[in-house]
C-alpha cells in the first residue's frame, strides 16, 4: 500500500451566473470531501457517503478514479500506481446544477497530484479538468474559488479568478427532481438572435465590472439571460415565477444554476434578506407542484484544498 493518503475538499459551483453562458462560474460554500490512497498493486475500493451514495458507480466507471488515472497517465506514473482506496463524502446534490461532476473531477486530479509531489500547477490541473469535463465553467471555480471567467482558445483554457468587492450571499433552491446536463443541452437552439447575443454580452461585462469595483447599483439587472434560460424554462416548472418571487423578497436577481434545475438568487449581505428570499422561492416552487430544499451559501474563496495528509 502507498505510504500516504490525502483528503481534499472541493466546493460546489454554479455556472453561467445569469448571462455568462459557459464562461462565468462561482464557487460556493457547500463541499465534497475525497480521501485518496494510491496503491502499487491492482485493486479498487470506493465508498460513497451522503449525496449520490445510492447511484454513484463504485467501480472503474467512477469519475474520481477516471480523473486519478488521467493525471497519473499525464505524469507517466500510471504503471507505478495501479489501484486505489477512494472514500467520498458528498454534500453537493447530484444532477441539480451545482457542479457535482466537476467536484469529483477536480478532487481526483488534486488528490493524485499532491500524492505524486505536486507535479502539475493549478493551471495545468484546469486544463486536464476541462479536457475531462468538456468545458471549464464549473471546474475553474472548483479549482480557484471565487468568481471565474474562462475562455478556450485553440483548446487552451485561460481563467481569470477574483473575489468581488460586493459582499454577496447566495440563496439556492434545490428542486426534488434531477435534470441531466445532456437533456438541458438538447433543448438549446443552434443559433440565437443577434439582439439576444448583444444583450448577454453587455450584461455579462457589466456584472464582472460591477463586482470587481463593488458598485452594487449596477447589479440589479445583470443576472438576466437570453441565450439558454428561455429555452430551458419548460424543463423547470415555475422558473420565472420563482425568479420574480426572489426579486420581490429583496434579491438582486436570480438565474438557473448551471443547466439547472437549481435556481440561485443573489443577495447583498447587508440587506439580510436571505431567509425571506429562500422562503419566497420555496413557496413559489410549491405553488407549481415542486418541493425544494433551500441552501443559503457564501462564496468560497479557496477552491480545492488539502484538508489533511496522513502517513500510514
TrEMBL record:
Superkingdom per UniProt: Bacteria
Subcellular location: Cytoplasm
GO molecular function: ATP binding; homoserine kinase activity
Keywords carried by this UniProt record: Amino-acid biosynthesis, ATP-binding, Cytoplasm, Kinase, Nucleotide-binding, Threonine biosynthesis, Transferase
Principal subcellular localization: cytoplasm
Function: Catalyzes the ATP-dependent phosphorylation of L-homoserine to L-homoserine phosphate.
Name of the molecule in the record: Homoserine kinase
Species of the source: Selenomonas montiformis
Gene name as annotated: thrB
